[in-house]
């Protein structure tokens, strides 16, 4: 009889102990272990807390590199790389392809070909750059803008007491417009066009003082007057005429 009572009490105690883990109080697939007065949760990797209720933030001390974004996952993390980078930790740097230099020109890549770096273009002497002088390696590993090119360039233009507007450029087909400073007037071509030969078509104009034109016009009028008088006198052999100042 005593043995039967002891067995019943033992089974009740076991049932009471197991009742602490039924239903399972541990979250996130944690394993419950019943004890005399309490239970213990053994958490799967990635979770912590008394009942495994907390997701461990592995991004708290992440090692993602080069501006990458850390994404927390169970028992680990992922690095979302910025453009131009790769690898588990975004440690591998990608770069744009080596650019070609334009014909009759040069390209300076001394800053490097990695994302964000800038290259510079220049032309040989006698050639002018058409297009952007610099390009940037973008996140998609392509160069910004289009490759520029070098065209034959006409020389700089200078005229005394004036200036040449070459805002269109000095490449073939471009037009230079001349102007004079105050007190001077333009004599000759007001515009010149740059030819494929690299020379301006035509002769540069000059800027002459305004008073000089008055003198020239006076001389021309006097010459015309004298010519008319001479013709009349030649027609009349008895003509006498004295021109006085």
UniProtKB/TrEMBL annotation:
Disulfide bonds join 43-52, 81-90, 123-150, 180-207. InterPro entries: EGF (IPR000742), EGF-like_Ca-bd_dom (IPR001881), EGF-type_Asp/Asn_hydroxyl_site (IPR000152), EGF_Ca-bd_CS (IPR018097), SEZ6_CSMD_C4BPB_Regulators (IPR051277), Sushi/SCR/CCP_sf (IPR035976), Sushi_SCR_CCP_dom (IPR000436). The chain crosses the membrane at residues 210-235. PROSITE patterns: ASX_HYDROXYL (PS00010), EGF_1 (PS00022), EGF_2 (PS01186), EGF_3 (PS50026), EGF_CA (PS01187), SUSHI (PS50923). Residues 1-19 form the signal peptide. Keywords: Disulfide bond, EGF-like domain, Glycoprotein, Membrane, Repeat, Signal, Sushi, Transmembrane, Transmembrane helix. SUPFAM superfamilies: Complement control module/SCR domain, EGF/Laminin. GO terms for molecular function: calcium ion binding. Residues 94-152, 155-209 form the Sushi domain. Residues 17-53, 55-91 form the EGF-like domain. Pfam families: EGF (PF00008), Sushi (PF00084). PANTHER family: PROTEIN CBR-CLEC-78. This is Uncharacterized protein.
């Amino acid at each position: 009889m005593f043995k039967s009572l002891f067995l019943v009490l033992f089974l009740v105690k076991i049932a009471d102990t197991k009742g602490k883990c039924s239903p399972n109080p541990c979250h996130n697939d944690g394993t419950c272990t019943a004890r005399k007065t309490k239970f213990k949760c053994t958490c799967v990797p990635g979770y912590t807390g008394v009942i495994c209720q907390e997701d461990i933030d592995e991004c708290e001390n992440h090692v993602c590199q080069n501006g990458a974004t850390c994404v927390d996952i169970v028992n680990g993390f992922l690095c979302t790389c910025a453009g131009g980078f790769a690898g588990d930790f975004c440690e591998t740097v990608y770069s744009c392809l080596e650019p070609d230099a334009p014909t009759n020109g040069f390209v300076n890549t001394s800053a490097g070909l990695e994302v964000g770096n800038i290259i510079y273009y220049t032309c040989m002497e006698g050639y002018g750059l058409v297009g952007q002088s610099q390009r940037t390696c973008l996140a998609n590993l392509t160069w910004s803008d289009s490759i520029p090119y070098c065209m034959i360039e006409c020389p700089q233009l200078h005229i005394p007491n004036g200036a040449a507007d070459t805002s269109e450029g000095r490449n073939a087909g471009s037009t230079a417009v001349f102007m004079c400073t105050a007190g001077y007037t333009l004599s000759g071509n007001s515009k010149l066009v740059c030819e494929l030969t690299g020379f301006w078509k035509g002769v540069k104009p000059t800027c002459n003082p305004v008073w000089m034109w008055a003198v020239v016009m006076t001389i021309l009028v006097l010459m015309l007057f004298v010519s008319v008088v001479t013709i009349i006198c030649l027609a009349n052999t008895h003509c006498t005429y004295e021109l006085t100042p």
